[in-house]
Structures are given as C-alpha cells and as structure tokens.
Design brief:
Blueprint (H helix, E strand, L loop, with lengths): L1 H5 L4 E7 L2 E6 L2 H4 L3 E5 L2 H8 L5
C-alpha cells in the first residue's frame, strides 16, 4: 500500500477479516480499473485448501 500511496494513488478500501487483509488501490487513471490485493493468513490458506475443485 505504501508504494501506491508514494506514487500518488489513493487506497479506496482497506479491510480485514481474521488475519487476512485486503485493499483496493485506485489506479483507474493509469489502468482504467482498480487493483485488488488479498493478503492471506495461514488459517485462510488452510481453509481454502479444503474447498472442492473441478
């Protein structure tokens, strides 16, 4: 997030659930869309591994 802020982009949303964090960087002027980042904690990674896959 600091890198986006240093380059003049605002952070449109920053939140967390449990130990997992996420944020949206407003890069609309540069790319035509926002960038989403999801920073998973170990518990969330383990839970995701239990989900069925095709």
């Amino acid at each position: 997030m600091a890198g986006y802020r240093q380059r003049g982009h605002r952070i449109a949303l920053e939140a967390s659930f449990g130990g997992t964090r996420f944020f949206y960087a407003d890069t609309y002027d540069l790319l035509g869309h926002f960038r989403e980042y999801l920073l998973l904690d170990d518990a969330t990674k383990k839970w995701l591994a239990t989900l069925p896959r095709n």
